Amino acid sequence: MNIVRILHARIQALTCAELLERLDKGVLFTPNVDHLVRLESDEDFRRCYDKADWVVCDSRILYFCSKLLKRSLPETIPGSSFFPAFYKYHRNNPDCRIFLLGAGPGVAERAMERINSDVGRRIVVGAHSPSYGF
Description:
Blueprint: E1 3-6, E2 9-12, H1 16-22, E3 28-29, H2 33-41, H3 43-51, E4 54-55, H4 60-66, H5 79-89, E5 98-101, H6 107-119, E6 124-128
Parallel strand pairs: 3-4, 5-6
Antiparallel strand pairs: 1-2
Helix pairs in contact: 2-3
């Protein structure tokens, strides 16, 4: 798989369609400029990124920066648009289960209800909205 390195981020050069076809398990990170800045100084954050199974470009800024490199990213895959595409792609896959982590109090739980209703099954198996900065 082609990797595009921008500072401390090793970003996989995939299209959204390729990611939907290949992503069958693992942890997905979608870096943006804020993440790149944090990766420069936060070793714990960097270790998490290094252990991630999937790292794809979430940012048009990173996408355009990659055009200055030998290898560039084929497109951006914003997490906000990829996630709905992912659960709709897997709506009939009983082996696909999702856990939502994050957002304000009660938000993840409400999102779980809406997604499960939209998909017509319990694809989101749990949700948790921890306190800020957990």
